[in-house]
């Protein structure tokens, strides 16, 4: 497949001489063959399976142009995609990354009921002290993520007397508070001393 499109996508192809911006879209599959091979293979077998059944050259060229990469980290796993580093990169390195959800951050957020599909989970409202938050993944205390806390309905949380413990998780994780403050410019709680809360969620997964 590389051999079929390498000349069409090469930087020396006349079509890329129209402007420097077009030249940036070229792919040197000859000099950087191994890098492109490693990067594109890292995107998964599905990509290659789709390419293999395309017989039309122009269509193959368009598809290959879209999926080629020499960056093996372009397609992260879900865990890496929502990591603090990935979230920060999307905000600082991506054009027009700021959107309406960013504008809504820290606005009041209410629990509208477990059956309200457009509303936040009860545990999410508790964790972020009733304020809208886009901080996900690594910004959330690990134990809560492991327990799948956002899937708990309000009745279960109240029955387990977990409201206060969820709301106080930031006391047990002052490092996360500092990280959110550094990365996002706001904190989910007051800047906390380096102390841990006596109450934890240990044992709740039983």
In terms of per-residue confidence, which ranges show pLDDT below 50 for 5 or more consecutive residues?
192-199
Q: Write down the overall geometry.
A: elongated
How large is the share of residues in beta strands?
under 5%
Secondary-structure element sequence? HHHHHHHHHHHHHH
| Overall pLDDT | 77
- Major sheet: size, sense and barrel closure? none
- Count of alpha and pi helical runs: 14
Number of strands: 0
Give the number of domains: 2
End-to-end Cα distance, whole Å, is: 52 Å
Helix content: 40-55%
Q: What kind of assembly state do the chains in view correspond to?
A: single chain
Nearest-angstrom radius of gyration? 24 Å
Supply the helix-strand structural class.
mainly alpha
Protein model, in words:
This protein has 206 residues and is mainly alpha-helical. It has 2 domains: 2-67, no CATH class; 78-184, no CATH class. The longest helix has 11 residues, at 57-67. The radius of gyration is 24 Å and the shape is elongated. The protein has helices at 2-9, 20-23, 33-41, 45-52, 57-67, 78-81, 84-93, 100-104, 122-127, 142-146, 154-159, 163-167, 169-172, 174-184.
Task: Give a quick set of tags describing it.
2 domains; 14 helices; elongated; 206 residues; mainly alpha
Précis, in short:
The chain is 47% helix and 0% strand. It is built from 14 helices and no strands.
Note the topology.
Blueprint: H1 2-9, H2 20-23, H3 33-41, H4 45-52, H5 57-67, H6 78-81, H7 84-93, H8 100-104, H9 122-127, H10 142-146, H11 154-159, H12 163-167, H13 169-172, H14 174-184
Helix pairs in contact: 1-5
